[in-house]
């Protein structure tokens, strides 16, 4: 995408900024989605990707942008300048996102791109357009420990003026457990991709593994994508996708989104990127309540999440 197109994208967001509001949620097949997504659902569901397209799927705030940056660098042999050609949402469009005009939707951006494309989604497996599986597209899913994911999503909802008002943290925990947040229950989300991963050739990654040994996980992604880059390039990618590097990278830190939409004075888009931060937020009573509910909701599947206790 040209510099002119990058500017037009930012200008469109700034122009619409004054009309941005916290959009209500509407259920699509039982999953709460922002009203603009729900109102455009037929077009989203009908999207037919090219077999060469790659889908990066996560529950919100589970390492999406991190994975997008790793993939883009792998596809460009670690060329940092090539990966600064545009902000993340332009390089790797958000499939289902829709906002008031003149902000282009994810579908609008994808129409202007030639395959192969890297496409982001937060949709649970059952809402992913069937064309992805019919065309045998590759897909990478990243899952994050529920408590850390909840805390990160809470801060995101505080600063993202398009999401419903999060309210107090204590109440947010209950919303998370009941699946009342945008894109629905975390539990169903992580389980839906887990049970389909073998059948659909989905690379299922864990945020905690990526933090523990980023080089190992970058290599896993490289092999899954049938790429071959040198050890030197792998090391460079690990450095370029460290939390510190990405937080300082204007093409990855979402500073392209103006403050009426993402108010980063409330909370940065890239806040901490840590494992175990939930311990700074949950009381012992909240943790006990959450753990009991978690055990019940996850009893039918054995996904090897780290307990982080």
From TrEMBL:
<keyword id="KW-0963">Cytoplasm</keyword>
<dbReference type="Pfam" id="PF00685">
    <property type="entry name" value="Sulfotransfer_1"/>
</dbReference>
<keyword id="KW-0808">Transferase</keyword>
<dbReference type="GO" id="GO:0004304">
    <property type="term" value="F:estrone sulfotransferase activity"/>
</dbReference>
<dbReference type="GO" id="GO:0004062">
    <property type="term" value="F:aryl sulfotransferase activity"/>
</dbReference>
<feature type="domain" description="Sulfotransferase">
    <location>
        <begin position="51"/>
        <end position="301"/>
    </location>
</feature>
<dbReference type="InterPro" id="IPR000863">
    <property type="entry name" value="Sulfotransferase_dom"/>
</dbReference>
<dbReference type="GO" id="GO:0006584">
    <property type="term" value="P:catecholamine metabolic process"/>
</dbReference>
<dbReference type="GO" id="GO:0005737">
    <property type="term" value="C:cytoplasm"/>
</dbReference>
<comment type="similarity">
    <text>Belongs to the sulfotransferase 1 family.</text>
</comment>
<keyword id="KW-0128">Catecholamine metabolism</keyword>
<protein>
    <recommendedName>
        <fullName>Sulfotransferase</fullName>
        <ecNumber>2.8.2.-</ecNumber>
    </recommendedName>
</protein>
<dbReference type="InterPro" id="IPR027417">
    <property type="entry name" value="P-loop_NTPase"/>
</dbReference>
<dbReference type="GO" id="GO:0006805">
    <property type="term" value="P:xenobiotic metabolic process"/>
</dbReference>
<dbReference type="GO" id="GO:0051923">
    <property type="term" value="P:sulfation"/>
</dbReference>
